[in-house]
Amino acid sequence: MAPRTHRRKKVAASDYQAVLEGIAARVREQPNRGKVATYIPALARIPKTKFAMVVKCVDGREAAVGDADELFSMQSLSKVFTLVMALRQAGAGLWHRVGREPSGNRFNSLVQLEYEQGVPRNPFINAGAHVITDCIVSHDAAGKQSILNEVRRLSGNAAIQFDLEVARSEREHGHLNAAIAHFLKAHGKLRSDVDEVLDAYFHQCSIALSCRDLARAGSFLANGGIDVTTKDRITTARRAKRINALMMTCGLYDAVGSFAFRVGIPAKSGVGGGILGIIPGLLTVAVWSPGLDANGNSDAGVRALELFTTKIGRSVF
Ligand code: GLU
Fold first, then answer.
1. Using CA atoms, how far apart are residues 196 and 205, in angstroms rounded to an integer?
2. 14-62 pLDDT, tens per residue?
3. Taking the CA of residue 6 as centre, how many other CA atoms within 13 Å lie in the half-sphere pointing to its CB?
């Protein structure tokens, strides 16, 4: 008798559409959708009722539901794309400047940085993101414009812009970020001028894109480093694997464990309410809903992703 194998049914694009519609209906029924980030006043105005979810398969098929073309603030999602750029510029030497462990502290904490002498735990906490952005601005005179161009290229949407009101708001309320950057500089961990690094960082966070843009922009991470639409090699397969690993272990603030438990895929969130999830070899799934849970992750977004991996019967586990 042939050995029994654990076969996985292929989910058709039309099925993804039905799955997303089912999830959107469930989310609509849920009255409580967290709290919109208020520490950046420009974000506080977004209605909590917004919801979008987009799937981009590695074979190019796409499914979308809700406010999929409405723009929202990228915030910490930008850290995935700046990491890809910095690895391209600095290679593996980048890992001497930033670690690869979950922090177990708030994303903007100074405490850990102090007792670890200015080597941030990972590229997704703010201190790590400042080191990554420093790497970009010190290699590339175009700095923040190159970050914007990278997001445009990866999403295939040349109309994506910085939201200058959000960037200004970030700067005005960015005292903790400034403290972190000055601390890094004092320890000799930033090469560029502090103000230049902060300016690029606030602008990268302010990039306004849609859920559809996000799902497309992340497609190379599900596809061994190759952009699904253009077939351009964005990063090596090895780096794509490593970035996915970092998303899995450090991508959801202080809720990586419960997100892995509930959803089971690498993902990165931002306080604008976006989450980018990756099922390597299969698809990217982007979700946006601006109400955040106590950990700063999109409340409806996490729930929607949990329903998604449950319904399609796929995760990385
Ligand atoms: N611009 C935000 C900050 O640095 C990013 C927050 C986030 O999405 O984690 O405070």
1. 14
2. 699 999 999 999 999 987 789 998 888 888 889 999 999 999 999 999 9
3. 2
Residues lower than pLDDT 50 in the chain: 1-6
**Residue whose C-alpha is closest to residue 308's, from 67, 51, 23, 66:** 23
**Atom 7 in ligand 1: which residue has the minimum CA distance?**
76
Structural domains present in the chain: 14-312 (3.40.710.10)
Distances 124 to 153, 243, 249 between C-alpha atoms, Å: 22, 11, 10
Closest CA to 185 of 176, 194, 177: 194
DSSP letter (8 states) at residue 193: -
Ligand 1 mutation pick, 40, 124, 163, 250, max ligand atoms within 8 A of CB: 40
| pTM, full prediction | 0.95
- Quick check: helix, strand or coil at residue 64? strand
Distance 14 CA to ligand 1 centre (A): 35
Amino acid identity of residue 151, one-letter, is: V
Please tell me the predicted confidence (pLDDT) of residue 1: 44
- Which pLDDT value is given to residue 9? 60
The CB density around residue 199, as the number of other CB atoms within 10 Å, is 18
